[in-house]
Amino acid sequence: MSIAFANALANLLVNRRNCYCLQTMAGYVKVQEPLTDEVLAQHLNGQVTVGAYQLGLDNTVKYLCFDFDPEHLADTRTAVERLLAMLLEEKEEADGVKRPRIWPSAVLLEASRYPDQSYHVWILFSLPVHARVARWLGLRTLELSGLSPKEVEVFPKQTELTKERPCGNLVKLPLGFHQVARKWSRLMNPKTFEPFPDEALLDCWGISFLEADLAQITSFGDKRHVQATLTLQENEKPMKRRDEEKAVRFLAKYWVRGRRNRLEMTFLGFCIKHGVSCESAGRVIERVCDITNDEEKARRLQLVDYHYRNRRNLGTQLVGVSGLREIIREAST
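The structure corresponding to this sequence follows.
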């Protein structure tokens, strides 16, 4: 697969680049070299199999992962279905609209040794969160699904790096070749459990959190429940029409598969940061979708509302102009 595809894999799932592991017939061997996009491309092509360390040097993670192993579960598929049903259950909110707990684009189902009944369920984060938050969410998610951490392994396994464990746990990246089982990893349709094309990875993006929610989860300790809050931004204003048109022309230039998901997220981050109204941002996204014949227009418009409802309190952590510049640099290389 291409370097661009490897770059998409890195953006979603790689949080530490200064070292990694390679799977062998005898286990994993640590490599004290940078994890480059070239190595990730080799992983995707089956030349090597990469295990990436989940915790960054700042103890943050980009995802939460559940490992369903037939050695610990009599019926892994039923257990996965219970977890997915809880995650994707639609709940009616205060405005009367039913929305899933987590947008499907942030949930990946992987058969790690297809067609074996061994599965990983990944929940992606749009911005890295502290491992303590991810760990709590993972255990709470299992609890709500009626599952036990004795049955389902939760990654991250620890909440911070230590002198004894300076790298933490590793997770085998998806879409690679299992060196021991001699079988490929495949992305799966969470409704039918049939294989998805690998390119489905290009249409994924992560969930976001309010700062207040992150602080609340961090403070929980052994508490078992969290009440999410929603803080609205006042004094948001629409962009001038000519500025909306400029934004449309700019975004449409780079709006291609493998880039458009992150482009929308970073544009919305910019808008929220600068007090641009949800309606104005939605008009821009709608026009870009029309110009580029984006087949996912309806979902992208839903996600405008989702980002405005859930990202306002991220403040300076929002990806804005810097994210747009990064995408432009990628498109120019």
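Residues 248 and 288 are 6 Å apart (CA to CA).
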